[in-house]
Amino acid sequence: MSSGTSRYESPFGAPEGAVPPRLVVVGSIAYDSIETPHGKRERVLGGAACYFSWIASFYTRVGLSGVIGRDFELELLSPFRERGIDLSGVQSDTENDSFFWRGRYEGDMNSAQTLETRLNALGVYEPTLPAHYRKAPFVFLANTHPAVQNAVLDQLDEGAFSCCDSMNFWIENEPDELRRVLERVDGFFCNDAEARSLAGTTNLIHAGRKLLELGLKFAVVKKGEHGALLFHREGVFGIPAFPTKDVKDPTGAGDSFAGGFMGALAAAGEAGAEQLRAALFEGTVMASFTVEGFGLERLFALDEGSVAERRRQLRDFLPKAD
Amino acid sequence: MSSGTSRYESPFGAPEGAVPPRLVVVGSIAYDSIETPHGKRERVLGGAACYFSWIASFYTRVGLSGVIGRDFELELLSPFRERGIDLSGVQSDTENDSFFWRGRYEGDMNSAQTLETRLNALGVYEPTLPAHYRKAPFVFLANTHPAVQNAVLDQLDEGAFSCCDSMNFWIENEPDELRRVLERVDGFFCNDAEARSLAGTTNLIHAGRKLLELGLKFAVVKKGEHGALLFHREGVFGIPAFPTKDVKDPTGAGDSFAGGFMGALAAAGEAGAEQLRAALFEGTVMASFTVEGFGLERLFALDEGSVAERRRQLRDFLPKAD
User: Fold this and answer.
1) How far apart are CA B272 and CA B129, in angstroms?
2) A164 to chain B, minimum CA–CA distance in Å?
3) Does residue B144 contact residue B28 with C-beta atoms inside 8 Å?
4) Which of A286, A287, B115, B259 has the fewest beta carbons closer than 10 A?
């Protein structure tokens, strides 16, 4: 905050009437530099909130909240606006550059090697949600400092169904603050290593059940190429990943999974066992597209027809229920 | 061979009429000493052929072929005989002890640490199939030296649908002999590391497809707690592992999986895409029991009712197809 006036600007206005989104995502908007065995890209659009909101917009009315830096090219978000994603929650930091991440994937590409992280604007940002976002019935807090996640939770209407992601860094360095987040949200997304670490047990099924004891309605454990598990109060669901032949870049797959999952829940309007099971399927469908291209490349070309066809292919891949 | 007479005896006679089994398994019969975080057992019955034949007997008429040593307590196989498993292919080596394996599982128990292997009788054994085994329509060659697998294939009727397992040791040390096996059999079972190693590629979907190029009708890639993939000529199927809460001992899970899979195929009498998909489900059901006890403990107590209930539980765990 410099000399009493906010250094933040809101470059995008609210849509007419400022109708509350069905689903709000709060998370990073980034420049990513990515290298995989299939090629490299310099400073392409990335960040959890971008993957999530793009995917979720296939299901419901989405509002995006996040910070961009003074170096950010606003036209990168034009496709989001054209898809009807509410960008009034995007704030521009006039003093810092955008969050930047450089990473590399090797071998089986199951985990990224971070080569460089410059938090920049993200490191000092506390989101302020536009008034109409606070009435959204579904909210997703992408990975960030758990204190920031708690500050966003403070802004929400009481009835909001809220879910969050996190990462090993916060599990190790901010366990108490993260625990307070997990006690407040309804659902949690993490990967298998994070689930084991948080629950303090090597058996993933035990780990998932222990997470529920924090008060969560569900916990999704993402396992990359091995699919995902969903623990809820009545049981467990499991799904293998779609068998993508040519994984070009796994960046954003987890956030796309969450976008499909939460988008499906928001569209259903409830989160009972059957809606959660359907959401697991949708998350798997959507993540399978993300890895087919670098950054958001494949997603920008995605249409309803391709999604319907992929749903059919995933059904064919799964064991028949009878 | 000592002084012109075979040192092998056949302690079990053929069943009346020597009716050919629907499914023959050729593989190890062992004494296993196992240690896991949940306990330990000394010199319990083990070996791929024991797990496989016990499980497969829930589906079809099974014939077991394998060698036991002079130290072997024959009554260990009484339960097999009582279940109607044909033991006339079990040969006793009068000069050597039984195959012995000592292993330990730690942490997530995804892979065994071999502490001791004494091949004993298994190291010098070449199976001779009883005449009525050679007419079996389905045959499974459990992991052993690929030259032995080839020698068994030589004994089979031409129309037999044959499948095999192998291990990294043979992939590395007998690649040519193993390749000759893979060019002759219809189906192949391996784990994910073996698939990657055999195909020379890190992407499992690529690896599975490359295995088919050897002429296989299908390849199953077993991924332990992450389930299994099935590659066949029309596509790929995937299934997550059953979410077992208390894995006591993973020994034999892969062989039980194969037993359920091949048992289902043998019962169906054909191996088209739909039968393979159903077989993948059955393998997953059956492997889930094996890990619930040490050695064959849980399997000896298994009944049709528990299997039916587990099928229902696995269906509930999987994503709905629609």
Assistant:
1) 28
2) 23
3) yes
4) B115
Query: For residues B140 and B48, is the Cβ–Cβ distance under 8 A?
Result: no
Q: Is B109 left (phi over 0), alpha (psi -120 to 50) or beta?
A: left
Contact B23, B55 (CB under 8 A): no
- Distance of alpha carbon B70 from alpha carbon A25, whole angstroms: 69
B126 neighbors B93 (Cβ within 8 angstroms) = no
Q: B316: which chain A residues are within 8 Å (Cβ-Cβ)? A: 235
**ipTM confidence:** 0.86
Residue A246, token pair as written in the block: 């040519």
Convert the pLDDT of each residue in A59-116 to its tens digit.
999 999 999 999 999 999 999 999 999 999 999 999 999 999 999 998 878 788 999 9
B316 part of contact set with chain A, CB < 8 Å: yes
Nearest CA to B63 among B86, B91, B82, B41? Answer: B86
Instruction: Say whether residue B322 is in contact with chain A using an 8 A CB cutoff.
Output: yes
Q: What is the mean pLDDT of chain A?
A: 94
The answer to whether A79 faces chain B, any CB pair under 8 Å, is: no
Rounded Cα–Cα distance for residues A165 and A187 (Å): 9
User: Does residue A182 contact residue A150 with C-beta atoms inside 8 Å?
Assistant: no
Please answer whether residues B121 and B96 qualify as being in contact, where contact means their C-beta atoms are separated by less than 8 angstroms.
yes
pTM, 2 dp: 0.91
Task: Quote the Cα angle for A313-A317-A319, to 5°.
Answer: 135
- Residue appearing with tokens 């954003």: A252
- Residue B270 phi/psi, 5-degree rounding, is -150, 170
Dihedral sign computed on CA atoms, order B111, B317, B312, A242? negative
pLDDT given for residue A108 in this prediction: 77
As beta bridge partners, residue B272 has none
CB hemisphere CA count around B193 (13 angstroms): 8
B86 is written with which tokens? 């044909």
* DSSP code, position A319: P
Q: Does A243 touch chain B (CB under 8 A)?
A: yes
B245 and A281 within 8 Å at the Cβ level: the answer is no
Q: Residue B130 pLDDT > 80, yes or no?
A: yes
CA B287/CA B225 separation, integer angstroms: 10
Instruction: Report pLDDT for A2.
Output: 44
Question: Where do we find the tokens 């992407």?
Answer: B203
Per the CB < 8 A criterion, the answer to whether A141 and A27 are in contact is: yes
pLDDT digits (tens, 9 = 90+) for A285-298: 999 999 999 999 99
* B131 token code pair: 């005449």
Would you say residue B14 has pLDDT above 90? no
For residue A68, count other CB atoms closer than 10 A to its CB.
30
Whether B108 has its CB under 8 Å from any CB of chain A: the answer is yes
Q: How far apart are the first and last CA of chain B?
A: 61
Q: For residues B164 and B34, what is the distance between their CA atoms, to the nearest angstrom?
A: 25
Asked whether the beta carbons of A221 and A229 are under 8 A apart, the reply is yes
The predicted-structure confidence for A165-174, as pLDDT tens digits, reads as follows 999 999 999 9
